[in-house]
Amino acid sequence: MANRLKSKPVSRASVLRGYAGRAAAVVVIAVFGGSAIFGQNGVVAFGGYSRELEARKAHLAEVGKARDALAHRVALLDPKHANPDMVDELVRKELGVAHPDEVIIPLD
């Protein structure tokens, strides 16, 4: 029992270095954790992305309806079998022979 291990005295500076290292690690983890929750792409921003996605889907549906209306109009102007009413409307409008008080009634 005479061969006991003797412990070396621990200096105050080495203890403070250990605490400083742990404190720095906690700060780094806190910064990354805060960024994951409150950052630009964090959990809190996810709700905003969901609302923006819904708004864009609604806008896409409106644009799709407008595109379909234009496609229908283009189909009516097909040179092989053009709609006579559509051709008459466009010709009168482009040549300026429609009177200002004249009302063009679409048949769609």
Structural class: mainly alpha
Terminal Cα separation, in Å?
107 Å
Shape annotation: rod-shaped
Radius of gyration: 38 Å
Pfam family, one: DivIC
InterPro entries: FtsL/DivIC (IPR007060)
Transmembrane segments: 20-39
Protein name: Cell division protein FtsB
How does this structure look, described?
With 108 residues, the protein is mostly helical. It contains three helices and no strands. The longest helix is centred in the middle third of the chain and has 34 residues, at 43-76. The chain is rod-shaped.
Write the layout of secondary structure elements.
Blueprint: H1 12-38, H2 43-76, H3 84-95
Protein name: Cell division protein FtsB
Transmembrane segments: 20-39
InterPro entries: FtsL/DivIC
Write out key terms for the chains shown:
0% strand, 108 residues, mainly alpha, 2 domains, single chain
What's this model, at a glance?
This protein is mainly α.
